[in-house]
Amino acid sequence: MTDKIKIAIVGMGNVASTLLKGLEFYKNSTEGLWHPKLGGLSLNDITIVAVYDIDSSKVGEKIRQNIPDYKTDFSDLLIQPGILEDIVSPHISQNGQIKSVSYDEFVNSLKKIKPEFLINLISSGMEKSSEKYANAALEAGCSFFNATSAKTVTEQARKEFHSKGLMMLGDDLMSQFGGTAFHRGMIEFMTIRGIKIQKAYQLDVGGNQDTKNTMVEEIRERKRQIKTESIAIEAPQPFMSTAGTTEYAEQLGDSRVSYYWMEAKGFLNSIVEMDLSLRTNDSSNGCNVILDSIRAAKRALSKNDLAKADIISSYAFKNPPKKMHIRECIKAFEDAFLN
Ligand SMILES: NC(=O)c1ccc[n+]([C@@H]2O[C@H](COP(=O)([O-])OP(=O)(O)OC[C@H]3O[C@@H](n4cnc5c(N)ncnc54)[C@H](O)[C@@H]3O)[C@@H](O)[C@H]2O)c1
């Protein structure tokens, strides 16, 4: 048996909890997995070696306190303090209190634990903290995966990771069948069927903590820009487009509803109009993509094939360094890793 892929997570919120539950559930099942085996690896080849947060109601507690309804192999892991470089709004932490450590202390903790990947799952709007986590991963010698919308993957940073034989993957996770992926798929289908998209919008309403955080205007605008640009890739011509989170509705819990409207033109400028909605569970929608990316990256790293980082990022993120059409990046990803 090969050694397990060692992962550390920063941000013990909804997505991290669902990811840990998934690792437990998929010990004995493959139902619901997009790619049960990837790069020759299954989910049993992944293990979590450390988890960090800054919410003082979580730090110092065992994972079991955070996921009381589910026993996992990681239930006894202690949630350790992470780093905080941003000004936080009070609701980020459940009791309004923060517990964090210095950058050097965090790097030392990573060096001691020696994960192969650091997955950034911290709250939206934590631009500086995300950047620091990327630096810390580089310094400690582990690859970095940025699920947040913070801009971490720059040309310079990528070069630095590559020079150490590490990968940097990001930015802004694109869920398996979330608002953006579905929107891109619809526009791509219209385009290949010769229908010309003219105008479109996607209005997202969600009920989890991350949606609540996204309601801060600056964060909302940044995520809106990333989503809109990601969708624009699919059409050969510019079109009028708006896509982003518009409302927080607590009653939706960890689910999200995306309302779509599209207007396109066909033969003799005839109008094709679409008006529909999509409801999904937010945190589970991200997990296949995260776990696929980690296994693919592990495979590429073991062959020292760092150039594959571009394919993984195009498959897994809304704002990757190399933009590819949605169908093209799934094909490139599966051609490279599905065997
Ligand atoms: N499908 C998806 O759920 C999806 C898709 C795209 C992007 N994302 C992104 O993934 C991230 C995680 O999503 P979530 O729903 O789990 O969020 P969440 O709000 O449930 O959890 C975030 C956690 O990060 C912690 N945190 C905040 N600042 C931190 C810091 N500096 N260091 C360590 N911990 C910190 C918070 O205390 C919280 O426990 C978000 O940035 C989100 O936008 C998620």
CATH superfamily of the largest domain: NAD(P)-binding Rossmann-like Domain
Query: How many strand segments?
Result: 10
Major β-sheet strand ordering: 3-2-1-4-5-6
CATH topology of the largest domain: Rossmann fold
CATH architecture descriptor text of the largest domain:
3-Layer(aba) Sandwich
Percent of residues in beta strands? Answer: 15-25%
Structural class: alpha/beta
Total number of domains: 2
Count of runs of 4 or more consecutive helical residues:
11
* Biggest beta-sheet profile: 6 strands, parallel
User: What is the terminal separation in angstroms?
Assistant: 18 Å
Elements, N to C (H/E): EHEHEHEHEHEHEHHEEEHHH
In CATH's first tier, which class of the largest domain applies? Alpha Beta
What shape does the CA trace take?
A: globular
What's the alpha carbon Rg, rounded to whole Å? 20 Å
Give the fraction of residues assigned to helices: 25-40%
Q: pLDDT under 50 segments (min length 5)?
A: none
Bound molecules: nicotinamide-adenine-dinucleotide
Mean pLDDT: 95
Summary of the model, kept short:
This protein has helices at residues 14-25, 63-66, 103-113, 127-140, 155-163, 179-192, 209-214, 217-232, 282-302, 309-316, 326-337; strands at residues 5-10, 46-53, 79-81, 117-120, 143-146, 168-169, 196-206, 240-248, 255-265, 271-281.
